[in-house]
């Protein structure tokens, strides 16, 4: 697939891609308490990378990612699997949520949990799945006419 040759799309991509990625992290972090989560956040992040791919082409996108999209898929599945271990180690049913309070400077606490770990795994798995398909389709040769 060739990159787009429009100045408007390339300029818009440079502005929109970082905003979409930041919004995907927002959706990921709020998802275990409110609507959002790993799946929709992964779709938003994938959409940002696909916009970049359409604007700048496959080689620039591979340089941006620095790793093969299948690696995101594998790491995401591994993180999702790791998220069930704390409950199993405590003798509870698999996927029972575990919560830890991590002290922050200034006296506050950050609530870290196994649902967040699972959401991160889903996030990376969705990104890896979508980008593996889109980049693979973009790299396939177009038929001769």
Task: Give an overview of the whole structure.
This is Na(+)/H(+) antiporter subunit B. The chain crosses the membrane at residues 7-27, 39-60, 72-95, 115-137. Residues 8-131 form the Na+/H+ antiporter MnhB subunit-related protein domain. This protein has one domain (7-139). It has a two-stranded antiparallel sheet with strand order 1-2. It has 145 residues and is mostly helical. It has six helices and two strands. It has helices at 7-30, 38-56, 58-65, 69-82, 85-89, 114-139; strands at residues 99-103, 109-113.
- What ranges have pLDDT less than 50 throughout 5 or more consecutive residues? none
Instruction: Tell me the radius of gyration.
Output: 18 Å
Shape: elongated
How would a crystallographer describe the biggest sheet?
Answer: 2 strands, antiparallel
The run of helices and strands is HHHHHEEH
Q: Approximately how much helix is present in the residues?
A: 55-70%
Mean pLDDT, nearest integer? Answer: 90
In the sheet with the most strands, the strands line up as 1-2
């Amino acid at each position: 697939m060739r990159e787009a040759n429009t100045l408007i799309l390339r300029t818009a991509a440079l502005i929109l891609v970082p905003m979409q990625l930041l919004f995907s992290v927002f959706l990921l972090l709020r998802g275990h308490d409110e609507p959002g989560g790993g799946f929709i956040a992964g779709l938003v992040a994938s959409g940002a990378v696909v916009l970049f791919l359409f604007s700048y082409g496959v080689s620039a996108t591979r340089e941006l990612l620095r790793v093969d999209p299948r690696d995101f898929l594998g790491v995401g599945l591994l993180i999702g699997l790791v998220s069930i271990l704390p409950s199993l180690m405590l003798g509870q049913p698999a996927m029972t949520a575990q919560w830890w309070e991590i002290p922050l400077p200034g006296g506050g606490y950050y609530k870290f949990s196994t649902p967040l770990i699972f959401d991160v795994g889903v996030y990376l798995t969705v990104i890896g799945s979508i980008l593996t398909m889109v980049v693979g389709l973009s790299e396939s040769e177009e038929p001769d006419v």
